[in-house]
Every structure is written in C-alpha cells, then in structure tokens.
Amino acid sequence: MPPHRTPVHQAPPSTKIFVGGVPTLTSQEEFLHYFALFGKIKEFAFPPHPLKPGHNKGFGFVNYENIVDAARVAQPTRNHVIRAKTVD
Q1: Torsion angle of alpha carbons 34, 40, 43, 44, nearest 10°?
Q2: Which residue did the predictor score with more confidence, 71 or 77?
Q3: How far apart are CA 82 and CA 65, in angstroms?
Q4: Of 2, 5, 59, 62, whose CB neighbour count within 10 A is largest?
C-alpha cells in the first residue's frame, strides 16, 4: 500500500489516514462528524459515487492537524463503526 494511504488500523507515519469499507449510504457529514471526534481535521476527502446519487465510493481520507490525533484513530485495538459497519 502506498505510504500516503495508511489504513485506519496501522500506526500512521503522517497525519493522513485512509478509511476503507465505509457504507455507501454514509453522508459526508456523518463521515466528518465521526472522525472529528478524534481531533481537529485539517482536510478530508470523501468522494461521491459518480453513478449513484446520495452514495459514496466506500472510502475516504482524513488529514488531522497533528500526528497524535491520527495515531489515536489508528490504534489497532480500536474498532471504528459507521452505520453499524466496521470500517478499515
């Protein structure tokens, strides 16, 4: 996996986290709200599905302002659940 796409459950080398397995009906607001619980977000990307209005592509990126917040999200013992689904 490229270094800029750190899965949620690996120790991050940077402040940017890749989140996979997101339910496709999750809204941008739900995604942002959940990951903002772990720290201040500098930027994020949560691409919409090009052919299904109201759906997303099932993944996103979160870039935290500091490495401590990113590390908190990436703890291997922490399960992240959005819309009753565990995300990667």
Answers
A1: -10
A2: 71
A3: 22
A4: 62
**φ and ψ at 33, to 5 degrees?**
-60, -45
Note if the pTM is more than 0.85. no
**pLDDT for the residue numbered 14:** 84
Residue 63, class by beta-carbon neighbours within 10 Å (0-12 exposed, 13-18 middle, 19+ buried)? middle
Whether domain 16-87 has CATH 3.30.70.330? yes
What is the identity of the amino acid at 69? Answer: D
**For the chain, what is the total number of helices (H) and then of strands (E)?**
2, 5
Q: Which residues, in sequence order, are CB contacts of 81 under 8 Å at separation 6+?
A: 87
